[in-house]
Amino acid sequence: MKLAILSRDKSLYSTHALYQAGVDKGHEVHVIDYVRCHMEITSMRPAIFLGSQKLDGFDAIIPRIGASYTFFGCAVVRQFEMMGVYSVNESVAISRARDKLRSLQLLARKGIGLPVTGFAHDPRATDALIDQVGGAPLVIKLIEGTQGVGVVLAETRQAAESVIEAFRGLNANILAQEYIKEAKGADIRCLVVGGKVVAAMKRQSKEGEFRSNLHRGGSASVVKITPEERSTAVRAAGILGLNVAGVDLLRSNHGPLVMEVNSSPGLEGIQTTTGKDIAGMIVDFIEKQVSRKKSTRTKGKG
Q1: C-alpha distances in Å from residue 145, one per residue of 68, 109, 155
Q2: Which of 8, 110, 137, 189 is 20–30 Å from 34 (CA)?
Q3: Residues 37, 72: one domain?
Q4: CA-to-CA distance for 141 and 153, rounded, in angstroms?
Q5: Residue ranges making up the domain that contains 259
Q6: Euclidean distance between CA atoms 277 and 123, whole angstroms
Q7: Do 281 and 267 contact (CB within 8 A), yes or no?
Q8: Lowest-pLDDT range, 11-20, 189-198, 290-299?
Q9: Do 6 and 74 belong together in one domain?
């Protein structure tokens, strides 16, 4: 199998782990900086180039699209799909997951548990927005944010009003979200591959910080998830159309709540914590799909 990993940096842990897993299983693996690609969009013979080199003959791709390059990265993935190359996560699914508002709306429509979330554009709706999510403390998030960037805990109403006003001054789209006190600064990252939770870890924020992201000083430990948590994670990934996803859950008094679904989950923390070869599992899943000649459903449409 000829496999491409779309990544800006081949030295990143996740990219290297996927590369090594593919090589160890006897595949020809290439790491492609998708931002350097250019596309020829012509009827019946779409093509992708890296410099003067035409990128063809690939059986499958693993997109590792950075948040800053979502639009262009998804265009590259879509071009591969149009060429009949299998993508482990489709371009449409990546776009859905990257849009926090859209993803929450899709999950809510299917009855997935979520923190109470509000969205408004009119500055006059700020008071109603804060009340809607239960008042202070509340979490304010940039819709385009990722890895904890653009996420603020406003502990008072005045602080919330100031943060919302500041973000609006930057013409940024934001969400206001209920703060789940009982989670105590912890969340659960479930790694879903092919409709199954293959690993899970609990992430705990450091003292004085409410975000549990590991690169922000959070700690990780192995956790046993409940059947309801497992089902919620699998359903959330499926609703967004992701074959590989990191689903972040909060444990609340009324069951598991989905905080976010990540289309390019980092592998270092969860592989190190659980000792599981998740990169190998992802490659195994791709092997099965390619062997069944399972093409991308959308063929780049949408």
Answers
A1: 9, 23, 20
A2: 189
A3: yes
A4: 9
A5: 182-277
A6: 48
A7: no
A8: 290-299
A9: yes
Q: Which of 194, 193, 1, 196 is nearest to 85 (CA)?
A: 1
Residue type, 178: E
* Residue-wise pLDDT tens digits, 255-277: 999 999 999 999 999 999 999 99
Distance of CA 77 to the CA centre of its chain: 15
Say if 244 falls within a structural domain: yes
Interval 54-80: pLDDT, tens: 999 999 999 999 988 999 999 999 999
Tell me how far apart the alpha carbons of residues 99 and 119 are, in angstroms, rounded to a whole number: 13
pLDDT of residue 274: 96
Of 138 and 210, the structure prediction assigns the larger pLDDT to 138
CATH of the domain at 137: 3.30.1490.20
Question: How many domains in the chain?
Answer: 3
The answer to whether residue 297 is domain-embedded is no
